[in-house]
From TrEMBL:
It comes from Cynoglossus semilaevis. The keyword Transport does not apply. SUPFAM superfamilies: Nuclear receptor ligand-binding domain. This is Estrogen receptor 2b. Gene3D superfamilies: Retinoid X Receptor. Residues 309-333 have a biased composition (Polar residues). Keywords: DNA-binding, Lipid-binding, Metal-binding, Nucleus, Receptor, Steroid-binding, Transcription, Transcription regulation, Zinc, Zinc-finger. CDD domains: NR_LBD_ER. GO terms for molecular function: DNA binding; hormone binding; steroid binding; zinc ion binding.
Amino acid sequence: MTFFFHLLGVRRERSGYRGPRHRRGGPQSRGRHLYLEAPLAPYASLPQAIHVHPSTMSPEEFISRIMEAEPPEIYLMEDLKKPFTASSMMMSLTTLADKELVLMISWAKKIPGFSELSLSDQIHLLKCCWLEILMLGLIWRSVDHPGKLIFSPDFKLNRDEGQCVEGIMEIFDMLLAATSRFRELKLQREEYVCLKAMILLNSNLCNSSPQTTEELESRNKMLQLLDSVIDALVWSISKLGLTTQQQTLRLGHLTMLLSHIRHISNKGMDHLCTMQRKNVVLVYDLLLEMLDVNTSTSQTSSSPASDMFSDQNQNPYQHSQPQSQTCSEQNAAADHTNTVPLHKPTNAPILDQHLQDMPFQPTVAAQSLVVTHMDTCK
């Protein structure tokens, strides 16, 4: 349930069942610091207006706020030994993903109006699109580096280096192709942050209809917030000096690329679950929970972030893994000698109920720019 604690920024006293927790590095990792660079420079410095409703902001103000929300760069901070093996590359990729997920939750909470949504909607939005958001960030970092994928400033891969991992070349090629297309369009930073927020807010829009007054109110807030994001994107395009027709075409080209990112993320989800089942890589904590949630809910969460622009999201994008099993359950069924640590499978409805009912105690907020692993030996 790590994901939900990070989302809330709080901790509860646990009791009853507690599954084994496995962490990378063991005792030797204590005392290490995860150094993070400053976030993207804001478009314009604005005072913090926590309670300002997004609909009352101008597009320029809204873009400034979501640019201020951008997470800092994160570093792998590991000694990379080349040539890579399948295990070493996948371990590096999952290590970065696990770190980025924590920052992603903090980023989402800083988007104006997101924290006003119901807790259930916040959870569902994040768990439906986390890999898409990671991939869009990867594309943005790589846009000025033709032929390379910049996973972090200290972890850059070219296409050939991916050959050591079975099945990953197709994903690399798709990511490089999407990056090339954004490079052709000369993607601007303001457009990037709008597209990223659009992926988040539209990821779970068409999965179900609101049943209660609270759900309806949260959905209306979500739609208003999505309108603000679209207005901001349209405004940012209008500042590029294009004709009206060119602006319309650019908006279409940018938003149509979101369906491709969804397609790549589905491929990536399948591949990661396969690598875990084959014991090529160990998946831990937050990433494992998100992967299990995505696998167990893929039948009801298959709508891509670009549903509002395209209906090409049906059969081609379905997961190939059995939908009735989570990745943890697939691990157990694959081989009785499998040594991947098994965690209690995530059951989202039950956990949602726990989030509503269990008492919580406040802890330090998760927005810190330096995440420190405390050294107990002073």
